[in-house]
Amino acid sequence: MRKAKPGLWSALGLALALSCTGALSLRAQEIPAIGGADFQLGLPQSGILTIQPDRLFSESAFGRRAEREIEAEGAVLTAENRRIEAELRSEELELTERRSEMEPEAFRALADAFDQKVQETRRRQDQKLREITQMGEEARREFIKASLPVLQQIMQEAGAGAILDHSSVFLSAEAADITSLAIARIDAVLGDGAADEDGER
What we know:
Blueprint lengths: L5 H13 L12 E2 L5 E2 L8 E4 L1 H6 L2 H38 L5 H55 L3 E4 L13 H12 L3 H5 L3
Parallel strand pairs: 3-4
Antiparallel strand pairs: 1-2
């Protein structure tokens, strides 16, 4: 579940491009450079910055925590599916063994009921899988929303007008990639995000 939805990251890029002049809550320390210009330590001065969205999420403390939780939910569902599969197999075997002792109509009624049970069980388990997938999508949306002020601040410090998805840029200097810097700053602000989710930790 580590792949980002293209629409989510496209929305992020658009939001950043449109809000580069907006009011920002974070302040970074600045040092004067030769020639009177102001530069940030470790930050490229560029009109266009790039970022690796998948890495930004998966290597952040927030993303690692979210993915651990999703993997745990997936493991529980996998174990549950295996248990249910074993139960249904046993029930199917028992029904097959009884076939020779039953009238055809009676057997057909039991077989139809069993088939309906299997289909309903599959729908229920598929819904649980969709809910786990939705957890991942919601975590990414929450991460984008919470990270936006940090990325806006980096844009302001770099004097950039946009942050683009690194994979969509044909040619750029490596110095323009701010993924590692963004991860460090987002981690400093968000941590793993667990306290924000339940408000009690």
